[in-house]
Structure formats: C-alpha cells, structure tokens
Specification:
Strand order of the largest sheet: 3-2-1-4-9-6-12-5
Distance between the termini: 25 Å
Radius of gyration: 15 Å
Helix content: 10-25%
Number of strands: 12
Structural class: alpha/beta
Number of helices: 4
Shape: globular
C-alpha cells in the first residue's frame, strides 16, 4: 500500500495537477501550514486526509505525514511536482519486488516552460520514496532529508518539476 504525502501552504494554483498525478495512490495525506486560499478545498475533492501544522519546519511537517500514513511505502511529493505515467509504472514494480528501503527520484526541471538539463537542474536527485518500516525521520528545517535503515536505490523515471 502506498501513502502519498504532500506538505502545503497556499498551493491553490498547483495542487490540482499534483493530486491528479497521484490519484491512483491508496492514500493521500496533505499536511497544511495554514492555507488561506482554496488548497484544502481542492485536496478534499481527491479524498485527501488533511492534517494541520503551524510549524515552519519542513521536516516536522513531513514527519507528521509519516506518522499519519498507513501505507507500507511513503512517497513524498511537493505541490509543484507531478508523477509521470512512466514513474507510476516503475513505482508499482518497486512495490512488488525491491531490495532497497529507499529510493532517490530525479526531477525533470522546467523553468519558464523550458526543460533544463544542465548544472544543478538535472538529474536533481531527491530521496522521496521510503519503506515505512525502515524510515526513521526527516531532519533539517529546510533542505531537509530523510534518515532510514538499509540501502538506497535510484529510479529510472523522474518527477516532473
């Protein structure tokens, strides 16, 4: 079972496309930091479980999402990211047979409509898929990263960012 975890604050313009790309997940969890726009209204349309946190600490909010998640696997995605159909298919194969306890997923970064494939923009690896049984916690207030037991794998497919 997969739990998708999204942390939000005023993501009205981006959240729908994000949720649309993960609507196939078993569970969607949104940890919101006081949105005053329609972010939560849109999330409710996707049956997301919504939790509130006033913390400005990104790790604290990501950890709250893990605490509330019921899935065996945790996929963290930001509101401005999308799961492509190829990445979705790859994730299902990972769930069936994996020797890794965490995965780094590259991001295809688009800036002003143009994909950037140089410097820090590609492959732009982020550790975002974690087996809950081996996950410890997220650390760092910003530029946070997860701690976990076991080995890390790397996906062939990317987030769209």
């Amino acid at each position: 079972m997969l739990s998708v975890i999204i942390i939000t604050k005023n993501e009205e313009s981006r959240i729908k496309a994000c949720l649309e790309s993960v609507k196939w997940a078993n569970e969607i969890i949104v940890v919101d930091q006081g949105s005053t726009d329609k972010t939560l209204e849109i999330a409710k349309q996707y049956d997301a479980k919504i939790f509130h946190s006033d913390s400005t600490d990104f790790s604290e909010r990501r950890n709250l999402g893990a605490e509330k998640a019921s899935g065996d696997w945790l996929l963290y995605i930001d509101a401005d990211e999308r799961v492509s159909s190829d990445l979705k298919d790859e994730l299902f194969s990972i769930f069936e047979d994996s020797r890794f306890t965490a995965y780094a997923i590259s991001r295809r970064n688009f800036i002003w409509g143009e994909e950037k494939k140089y410097g820090p923009f590609y492959p732009d690896w982020v550790i975002r898929l974690l087996h809950k049984a081996h996950f410890k916690k997220w650390v760092g207030k910003v530029h946070e990263y997860p701690q976990f037991d076991g080995e890390i794998g790397y996906t062939k497919n990317s987030f769209i960012h």
